[in-house]
């Protein structure tokens, strides 16, 4: 059986153009209705001057931050997405894998007063990456993570483990993406193990939805 971490990275190579189209055409309802605004407000509310967007994808959040005068820098491991982010905005965007960030083998700047990760922590062993991000933050800096809400997507199986996303309902040629489901306590433990202290937990929710659209964690 292929290694899910490898398949995860390969799925982004395969899905890059479909993802760019889906995000830029506003095809993902939960983003339009709830989660885009949730991460933007969580970041802006901290009044950062210098932000790193981890796993920035095609760069919509970089553009939204730059439009508000914030010095935003992106990093992503997928070349087509990085090219698209660079072409669509003025923010510097680094092409680097999370493995390279953990190994500190690339220079993506440091002393960020905020690092955000919007639906970008999808692999299993996130603690080394979180520790590496910790080292890139300025003293007192914050990490803002938005992710799938574990209770909303548990589907009767509330245990850490690999799941598969099929992007059903979206136009385009999609390859299934393995992603690692983690429970709420698993998220909090990972932050703790990486040296972070949780300062805020939000559950962004559409008023007409029975379940939250995401889990938003802020840690310092
Ligand atoms: C669901 S997309 C989110 C993109 C963006 N944050 C957004 O909100 O539109 C996940 C992103 O994580 C990136 N990613 C996943 N695993 C990665 C890895 N091991 N190294 C670097 N980037 C990775 C993908 O390339 C992809 O751009």
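Sequence proposed for the structure above (220 residues):
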């Amino acid at each position: 059986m292929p290694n899910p971490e490898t398949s995860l990275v390969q799925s982004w190579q395969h899905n890059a153009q479909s993802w760019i189209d889906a995000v830029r055409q506003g095809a993902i309802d939960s983003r339009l209705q709830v989660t885009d605004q949730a991460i933007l407000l969580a970041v802006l509310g901290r009044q950062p001057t210098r932000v790193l967007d981890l796993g920035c994808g095609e760069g919509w959040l970089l553009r939204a931050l730059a439009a508000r005068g914030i010095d935003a820098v992106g990093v992503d491991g997928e070349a087509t997405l990085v090219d698209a982010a660079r072409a669509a905005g003025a923010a510097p965007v680094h092409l680097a894998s999370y493995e390279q960030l953990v190994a500190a083998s690339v220079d993506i700047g440091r002393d960020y007063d905020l690092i955000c990760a919007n639906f970008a922590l999808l692999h299993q062993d996130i603690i080394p990456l979180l520790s590496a991000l910790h080292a890139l933050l300025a003293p007192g800096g914050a990490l803002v993570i938005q992710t799938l809400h574990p209770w909303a997507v548990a589907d009767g199986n509330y245990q850490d483990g690999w799941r598969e996303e099929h992007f059903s309902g979206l136009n385009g040629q999609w390859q299934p993406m393995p992603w690692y489901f983690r429970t709420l306590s698993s998220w909090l433990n990972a932050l703790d193990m990486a040296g972070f202290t949780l300062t805020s937990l939000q559950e962004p929710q559409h008023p007409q939805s029975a379940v939250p659209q995401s889990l938003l964690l802020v840690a310092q």
